[in-house]
Amino acid sequence: MPDLPSAFLPLLLLSKFVTPVTFRHHRYDDLVRTLYKVHNQCPDITRLYSIGRSVKGRYLYVLEFSDYPGIHEPLEPEVKYVGNMHGNEVLGRELLLQLSEFLCEEFRNRNQRIVRLIQDTRIHILPSMNPDGYEVAAAQGPNTSGYLVGRNNANGVDLNRNFPDLNTYFYYNQKYGGPNHHLPLPDNWKSQVEPETRAVIQWIRSLNFVLSANMHGGAVVANYPYDKSLEHRFRSAHHTSKSPTPDDELFQTLAKVYSYAHGWMHQGWNCGDYFPDGITNGASWYSLSKGMQDFNYLHTNCFEITLELSCNKFPRQEELQREWLGNREALIQFLEQVHQGIKGMVLDENYNNLTGAVISVTGINHDVTSGEHGDYFRLLLPGTYSVTAKAPGYDPKTVTVTVGPAGPTLAVSYLLDGRKKMLTSNSSEARLRSA
Predict the structure, then answer these.
(1) pTM score, two decimals?
(2) Is residue 14's pLDDT more than 70?
(3) Omega of the bond prior to 171 within 30 degrees of 0, cis?
(4) Residue tagged active-site, from 308, 336, 349, 429
């Protein structure tokens, strides 16, 4: 992934003169200046990079926060926020710009909660996945009636219906046997998706993301996978079909963390709909195919939920401050959830990293794999679990681990012998983290 495109380097020189983020809508050039400004104010803990370009050539910028920007530190989890996937659903875009400035300012102010978060977590923020659609919607403005104007990308494609459909393969494997994670992509997948989708897929394949949320508008609810039902029925008051993942309880908890930390999402009654606790299984609301959150779960180690954040897809400017205050705590609490569960290293007898080792939890039919540094992360609710590590050429090893109610992280390390013998395993580094 390239770092800052040279065409925009002059903006660095101007960024210190840019006015602070205010509660206003940001067109593309303004968004770029704002990201550069935040990076310039906090250069030691941020990196600004592009994952690709839109149909019309606009860069898809990501702002990273870390105590070592650009470097994956073993046992430090990766988390991401994605905004503005639908170009006319703009609140997430503005919240992520506000969040970027907030993280920078609070780190500089030595807010210990934010300092600890940035030191222990690598955070990636993509404010706009669909900058072309946004420009169309913004040109119309919030005062007209074109409800869908700008939703799609410049080729007229809905990006949240554009990812490879892996649900069908999973449902088949569930019935007849086959892998329950990291399902392969079709050979011709790149030709089947839009430039923005392709950029995001390559991005999430290049980093071992653990947790994610993507932000939408038109409702106020935290939506968790699966989005596609087994029957794939469309929304109907009489024909809904919940489609839970093997991690259904965990996903419900993640959704509730956001909902109950939000100013009013948890109340349930919003925008003429009622969602108990302010959460919903995607398929039980309405079924959609080729969505991004299901793709994350089935193709990578990443657990993603979808946040519907406003009744009005393009809120008026005077509403933005209230929306920020209503979402700020939820945005931080959700990031902190990436530390709930277990993590560890998988090494061979010579202490070399074992990439792609499979970590399975008894009773949960969804595995994760170790990354290129040999580290793995498995989000889990409090409880006691039987966890197995296995890799080709090695005997599997099972240990019992406990995740406590206050959110400890247990680092479970495995040392595997190439002669198919487990030499040692241990549980260590139990640390409580504030929620």
Answers:
(1) 0.90
(2) no
(3) no
(4) 308
